[in-house]
Amino acid sequence: MTDNDVLNTEYDALIIGSGPVGCTFARKLVDAGQHVLMIDAGAQLSRRYGEHLKNSYLYQKNIDLFVSVIKGHLLPLSTATNKEPVLTLDPSAFSYDPDKYAGFSMRNQNPEQKKHLNLPAAAATYAVGGMATHWTCAVPRFHAQVERRNGDEEYPIDDKKMDELYDEAEALLDRRTSVFASSARHLLVKRLLQRSGQEYDDVTELPLAVRERVDVERTSAVEWAASDTVLGDLAEPQHRPSAGSFTLLAEHQCLRLEITGAGRRQKVEYAVVRNLRDLRQDIHLRARNYIVACGAVPTPQLLFNSGVTLPALGRYLTEQPMSFCQVVLQQDHMDGIETVLRETCGTDQDEDKRAAAAADRVADYRAAQLKRLHGGDKTADPVPFPPGERDPNLALLVTEERPWHCQIHRDAFTYGAVPPNVDPRLIVDLRWFGISRPRPENKLTFSRKIRDTFDLPQPTFHFRLDEAERKATDRMNEHMLRTATALGGFMPGSEPVFLTPGLPLHIAGTTRMGTSELDSVVDEYSKVWNIDNLYLGGNGLHPFGNASNPTLTSVAMAVHAAKTIISGHPGH
User: Could you report the average pLDDT of every consecutive run of 10 residues in the chain (572 residues)?
Assistant: First the structure.
């Protein structure tokens, strides 16, 4: 479809952003018979719209190779200017006085960014599917008392309604806990923790957006969910729904929304959109409703560029402090795998059966490899895990006594690369996610002078943890150290460390949901205050901060908002 075709088509909704949240809006609205146009500034990287790139055969066989894919798709949002001289530069080379040109921006550096208030690892992904093209797929629910409360403040959507919305969101994302539950590696790590003390009694399967592949009998590969999962049949470019319609345009960037009216009666008239493959002329796209779901930083950035002046826009920013380490399983644990797996845990007979079956597989494999070795075959496998045993994927979910989220698993990130001389079957990643609380001084601002890579106002971070958050993070790290000790020794280069601020990529609060336009940007139905036909989606709406991964809750909020659009917003 050409830009001219789009201009001549009347749409019920224009969705800006193609991540799981934007796709939730699209799926619900098209199912209700609406005509939906979705645009994204990024390119289409897969045959279906927004597939998870980790489903490729190569990355299923070697997950550590996927690190380079993630790095290649993360665009830093605010990099403080580096004015340090290059002392080894040829003295005859061009130079200038950095004090005289203090506002000059080079290579997307931000001269307005203070280093000590930055989230230097915060980044955005520009691709059809957004960050879901490379996300972890962890989909825990927010804890009702810790993450959906903040002191005396209650969540804008009540608990009963949230539980209903979570059910729908989990179905859209194909949430499961069974895909890794039979793995010998998974069960060994789980039982080692359960042996270590009562604080691990609640260790459980990490809720994941993942399913078995149809060829499960021949491979240990899985199918990771992403935006295409949420879209369903709409992810097929040639699919034509029986009612309504769905069109997706890649590499089309929304520059601003043209908003008319004043006071409490404003509306979006059209969106100004640029075809990034054809920069000759910007186009105007019109719809009855507009939905912006392009990330916790790009969304308020677009609203700012559109003249939205709500006092909470960009404020109340939260991001998670995070600690990380990798451990290599102890020799004693590996020597005694079968014994550990055959112990009955006493509470879950089905798990005991799975563990006993896993113990048999390990014993058979160990015996087969020893037979090969004794027969002079030096290619025998010294690690007693059969190659098809899947990674561990475990969690210690948030509780009031333990207000942090713990993931005990294996995955690819921009950190924690595995050296080539360590067998990855022995490695367990520990990622502990803390929580920060909303305060108006933690915020995003947008420059009126400096433009970013996409020619929009440059975002600048102003963020720091308070004393209580720092102390809680220290307790969280101590807990991670105790957990690591129960499993093994630290991987060289991946000893316990607090990660660079912003690296969790879970910024929230910048377009927060609330009950007043004085301290929030959208109401409980995700509609922007005072603008009749503008809705938002994404992690920016979470009002109280989060310790758990936020995507599931963002999708649940989008389900609520889509139903509101279909039925008509209250008061309209």
Answer: 72 98 98 98 97 93 88 94 86 87 84 96 97 97 97 95 98 97 97 94 97 75 96 96 95 97 94 91 95 98 97 98 96 96 85 96 97 94 93 97 96 72 92 98 96 95 97 97 96 92 97 97 98 97 98 98 92 64
Beta strand 208-212 with 175-176: parallel, antiparallel or unpaired?
antiparallel
State how far the Cα of 307 lies from the Cα of 311, in Å rounded to an integer.
12
Give the residue among 191, 234, 184, 226 at the shortest CA–CA distance from 209. Answer: 226
Nearest by Cα to 274 from 295, 243, 302:
302
Place of tokens 């009702």: 144
Determine the length of the chain: 572
Encode 481-547 in three state secondary structure: HHHHHCCEEECCCCCCEECCCCCCCCCECCCCECCCCCCCCECCCCEECCECCEEECCHHHCCCCCC
C-alpha span between 260 and 270 (Å, rounded): 10
Phi-psi region of 287 (alpha: psi -120 to 50; beta: other; left: phi over 0): beta
Q: How far is CA 407 from CA 227, 235, 322, in A?
A: 23, 30, 11
Measured CA to CA, the distance from residue 130 to residue 44 in angstroms comes to 10
Residue type, 361: R
Is-contact 435 547, C-beta < 8 A? yes
Calpha distance 377→298 (Å, rounded): 57
With residue 322 as reference, give the H or E element that holds it. strand 322-329
Sign of dihedral through CA atoms 508, 511, 513, 515? positive
Enter the DSSP assignment of 140. P
110 neighbors 458 (Cβ within 8 angstroms): yes
Structure tokens at 334: 């590996």
Q: Contact 499/430 with Cβ under 8 angstroms?
A: no
26: left (phi over 0), alpha (psi -120 to 50) or beta: alpha
- Which residue type occupies 107? R
Q: Per-residue DSSP letters for 247-299? A: EEETTEEEEEEEEEEETTEEEEEEEEEEETT-TT--EEE-EEEEEE-S-TTHH
Report how far residue 441's alpha carbon sits from residue 30's, in angstroms, rounded to the nearest whole number.
Answer: 40
- pTM of the full structure: 0.96
User: Which DSSP string do the residues of 453-472 spell out, in sequence order?
Assistant: TTSSEEEEEE----HHHHHH
How far is the C-alpha of 146 from the C-alpha of 64, rounded, in Å? 34
Q: Which of 332, 321, 236, 192 is nearest to 44 (CA)?
A: 236
In angstroms, rounded to a whole number, what is the distance separating the alpha carbons of residues 3 and 417?
A: 43
- Please answer whether residues 460 and 444 qualify as being in contact, where contact means their C-beta atoms are separated by less than 8 angstroms: yes
Q: Please say whether the beta carbons of 515 and 356 come within 8 A.
A: no
* CA separation for the pair 198, 469 (Å, rounded): 25
CA angle, 391 as apex, 170 and 404 as ends, to 5°? Answer: 60
Tell me how crowded residue 249 is: count the other CB atoms within 10 A of its CB: 19
Catalytic positions, written as ranges: 506, 549
Amino acid found at 367: A
Residue 23 identity: C
Query: Measuring CA to CA, how many Å separate 148 from each of 154, 175, 303, 547?
Result: 7, 21, 26, 11
How many Å apart are CA 162 and CA 104, to the nearest integer? Answer: 47
